[in-house]
Description:
This protein is an alpha+beta fold. 19% of the residues lie in helices and 32% in strands. This is AMP-dependent synthetase and ligase.
Amino acid sequence: MEQLQHICPDMEFILYYGASELNYITYCTGKEWLAREGTVGRPFPTVKIAENDNVIYVTTNYR
């Protein structure tokens, strides 16, 4: 990410995370990822995430 931003300084990169069964779950910008490497970002609008007993539950309208 650091190299990409160096090569293309005026470009904003958006990274998204999703499972094949759920598609879009979370997103973050390249700058946010560099500030907290490894983050999966925040949920997309209408995505709900909950954790119970070390199990992550996701509810989404995206397909």
